[in-house]
Design brief:
The complex is a heterotetramer, with two copies of chain A and two copies of chain B. By secondary structure, chain A is an alpha/beta fold. Chain A contains seven helices and 14 strands. Chain B is of the alpha/beta class. Helix content of chain B is 39%, strand content 20%. In chain B, strands 1, 2, 4, 6, 10, 11, 12, 13 and 14 form a nine-stranded mixed β-sheet that branches. In chain B, strands 7-9-8 form a three-stranded antiparallel β-sheet. The termini of chain B are far apart. The chains are: A alpha/beta, B alpha/beta.
């Protein structure tokens, strides 16, 4: 069986998480990636879910489709309510925010609100921020997992739903966001960081077999490149076995 | 419609408090019928809906408000689901304030929401999830705003008209998330006594704050217990009776949405519902749905019969398995 | 048996409470007065206690001596925590604040902090505000129950622990307190209100057998007098029987 | 001593957050010994004490800190009781921040508190009860202040140096209650698993906010349970394991103070203690008490033996009767 795009994202995403940390994870691939990390190399990782859920045990084959349902809360350690869950992030207790994104720009800002120039007359109305804005504002570090497609990777998002580095430089700090920011974008093509000065997106690593040209073709803005671009380790048999056991019906793994 | 200015009634803590002061805060009987409860929602009200997405949604109350043909409502809910779609399609709502609206990952972006919002029929005022939670909490605390570190720098600030505040100690700029005082709160809980003392199991969502924020509080409960029973576990009570205006005993009052530990959401029903929308378009499909599930069955029991006892038992078993 | 000072305060205090209301009551005589009101004429009254206790059943003979103990929480309806209990008052849910006071002045301000002119070098250090300041700031209406003694009724308290009308006039509103204020002072000699303009203390009613002169002698500032000073109804046999049944060991009734 | 200015470390939310960010937030083992836990309190720390008055006071931790002869502490507690008196008499504390201090109505104004405060040995910084609660809550929320309507107009404002803030929406002036970020929190709970997930029965006091506000969190628990057990009732957990630094299993860890549902406060003991103070004066009487109850018995079990099993059983029965 070949590795699907979702499997690649989940495995590469899971490797970003250290042990003895907390991760605010969205449902779908982010939650799978967090569960994989917990099983493989980060047993003392705590998963936090937006519906007000701390430390659930993810039941193989019973993955939640929303952050507000009993499968997301399965054998949880605590159910503190939604507002108080976000306040853990605001206080500084949540190390990682792990999220997807409809549209992302060269400074890591994400749009999940509207397509088109006028918020009040949207060309396409998307579902909205949910907790994405809060995760992007409040977690110590945000990691975005997303398919790498030209229509998603735009120079400037139509609407900044979730702030990363805003206009780059110190504009995030000046906007009143002293903490956090997007540290990594893990895509189906590679792993990206941000230049510490300009806060423009930078190619750090390519997945095996992916070329810089492919990345450039699928990116709607000029990318910076790290001095040395590494190649990621492909998903191991172990990682894939664990991951596939979590989602045997392949509802999220494709 | 696209007016980004905050309406003063949302954050006016002095007026909101005067309204509460003028109202009896009784430890007496609160039990009534669903139509008497729903009648307390009036034209143009700002209505806050408890639960979250398809969890513990007060659907029996929502249904009764639609049956009473209320119009011009502003609907406030952190994550909106089918209840919002029904309100939009029924023409009951002119504005929603929310962080997110659709049903869930498998069913994609809500076609109903897109139809009514993109056409301009309904304004969707978006706030971040925490910001909406803090808006309720500020109101629950009786203050006009709460300082926070969220939403700043994003384009959401301009949508809702949020302001900032300087911390008087450090001088740092913080978000000043404005209070949101609803006219009415609709809530569904696990158990309550006839005096309105209400207990919730599992995830509490934002219901406790919403109950304190609203001028009028309407509650449906899965189980009606004696007050000896609520007094046996006072540390489980999240809403005190003195702030409840009307209580109605409605088992399965959130169905086909879920109620933690009692019944699982009916995903098959969501799939049928969205398939019908895909096939016939939002207006026709939801129109039929309203006729069949809302305007048709005179009582909630009649409504539940459309699902059938077997379906209810299946959903109950699924919930038990996940929370036992 | 004659009526003790505490019995008089409890009975006269209880009559101030209407049905279908909530009362934030201190332990001792205020709580006894609230329990009596609930038994006699206000069955739909909810008692709220500072320790984070809503709607307890006061068990005869087992009266609490603090707001933070199991007897205060006996058969309570809710235990929301201390901060959230005060926030009910701030939001406007608590109709009456029912409290005592060490030192009270002509504008109803109460001192329970320090005696002497310098807070940091107190002549006598008293226990402090506890929740009294909050009750005085936040309840819809505050009723003070106190023994009437000249050393307690002073022109100006040494230290304003609990604000009533501050310097009179609209000074309370100007200080940032748009709600509440002391409406009544029930003492062992009579019942007092405040002039709606000057907010100076005013004699409204005398207990049976008490003269204006007695009141003046026991008051350290000039008192206003209502145009018609009424005489309170003495405690009835019913009231006294109910009250004494609540405290058969006379731990608070003296 | 009489410095009314707020110390910036109390409200500096940026520094407080950086301190948390630098610390591992682990789901791993937290179980340790009482002396290892107490060793995490260092000279000059701002120590917040959970519970309230004589309810759920973390007395085993307080005792161990006194045995370790810590000095220069600032003690923060909403209503202070005998634990504060012991800390004062032992010379451990130079400042207390509280709303009230004594034992309870029958024992009058604390002679120990009067002695040490009136002599200038200890500074007593007084805040209203709600204000102290909001100081912890602001810190728990990670913000430098919370707006409120309390304390304004009173002389307490000048004592603590509280500022005001203008509501950016209405222009009204509100109290800006400053955050209070403690260095260490001492808490006693009903049950916890070895990973620190902690549950409290009955009145929760301010413990949940204190745990979120502090940089280091030390917990003692009446009962040590498996995490299967805490996971069975996740809606009872008030402190998540990832924020707990040390957990110690200490049955009767609050005695002679009470623990809701488990044991009643020992009023006879308070009466003996205060009678001794009345007879011999604060320094001599509390000095003897410290020798007998704190410095003498090497372990908490030895300490409990001074009360005796019969006394403990009696206090347990009294609690059961009131909460059954």
């Amino acid at each position: 069986m070949t590795v699907t795009a979702s499997e690649l994202l989940a495995v590469q995403g899971s490797r970003q998480l250290r042990d003895d940390t907390t991760v605010f994870a969205g449902v779908g691939v982010p939650l799978l990636a967090a569960a994989l990390a917990q099983q493989r190399h980060a047993p003392k990782l705590t998963m936090v879910i937006e519906g007000g859920i701390i430390g659930p045990r993810i039941k193989p084959g019973r993955l939640p489709i929303s952050t507000n349902e009993m499968r997301a809360a399965y054998r949880a350690q605590m159910l503190p309510g939604i507002t108080d869950t976000f306040l853990f992030a605001q206080r500084g207790f949540l190390d990682y925010g792990f999220m997807g994104g409809a549209q992302i720009d060269q400074h890591g800002n994400v749009n999940t609100s509207v397509l088109g120039p006028d918020y009040w007359k949207p060309k396409v109305r998307l579902p909205g921020t949910g907790g994405a804005n809060d995760i992007a504002s409040l977690c110590k570090e945000v990691i975005i997992l997303t398919a790498h497609e030209k229509r998603r990777f735009v120079a400037r998002v139509d609407f900044v739903t979730s702030p990363a580095w805003l206009d780059g430089g110190d504009s995030r700090r000046r906007a009143g966001l002293p903490f956090g920011g997007v540290s990594r974008v893990v895509t189906t093509l590679g792993v990206f960081g941000f230049d510490p000065e300009t806060r423009r997106m930078r190619l750090d690593a390519l997945h095996p077999g992916v070329t810089r040209e492919q990345v450039r073709e699928q990116t709607g803005f000029p990318l910076l490149e790290a001095p040395e671009i590494s190649v990621t380790e492909p998903p191991t048999a172990d990682e894939l076995a664990m991951l596939r056991a979590l989602d045997p019906e392949r509802r999220f793994l494709g | 419609m696209g007016d980004p200015a905050l309406r003063p009634a949302e954050w006016d803590f002095v007026a909101a408090r005067r309204r509460l002061e003028a109202k009896p805060k009784s430890a007496g009987e609160k039990l009534t019928s669903i139509d008497d409860a729903a009648a307390r929602v009036t034209e143009g009200d700002r209505v806050a809906v408890g639960g979250c997405l398809f969890s513990r949604t007060p659907l029996a109350l929502v249904r009764e408000i639609l049956r009473a043909r209320r119009r011009g409502l502003t609907l406030v809910r952190n994550l909106m689901c089918t209840e919002g779609e029904l309100m939009m399609a029924a023409g009951a709502v002119e504005r929603v304030m929310t962080a997110w609206m659709s049903i869930g990952l498998p069913w994609g972006v809500s076609k109903v929401m897109r139809h009514y919002v993109e056409s301009g029929a309904v304004a969707l005022e978006e706030w971040s999830h925490l910001a909406l939670g803090l808006r309720f909490r500020a109101a629950a605390m009786g203050v006009p705003f709460l300082p926070a570190l969220t939403m700043l720098g994003s384009d959401l600030v301009a949508v809702g008209g949020m302001k900032t505040v300087a911390d008087p100690y450090s001088g740092e700029t913080l978000a000043a998330v404005p209070a949101l005082f609803p006219d009415v709160a609709l809530l569904h809980v696990h158990r309550a006594d006839r005096f309105g003392n209400s207990q919730i199991d599992g995830y509490p969502h934002m219901d406790a704050d919403i109950a304190r924020a609203a001028a009028t509080v309407l509650v449906t409960t899965e189980e009606l217990v004696t007050d000896d029973e609520t007094r046996r576990h006072p540390d489980r009570t999240v809403i005190p009776g003195f702030l409840v205006d009307a209580l109605v005993h409605v088992p399965f009052g959130s169905f086909p949405h879920e109620c933690y530990g009692l019944y699982h959401a009916d995903f098959d029903h969501f799939a049928e519902y969205t398939a019908s929308i895909d096939a016939r378009g939002p207006e026709a499909a939801v129109g039929e749905y309203l006729a069949r599930y809302v305007y048709g069955p005179p009582t909630w029991d009649d409504y539940l019969e459309l699902f059938g006892g077997e379906r209810l038992a299946r959903q109950r078993a699924a919930a038990r398995e996940l929370t036992a």
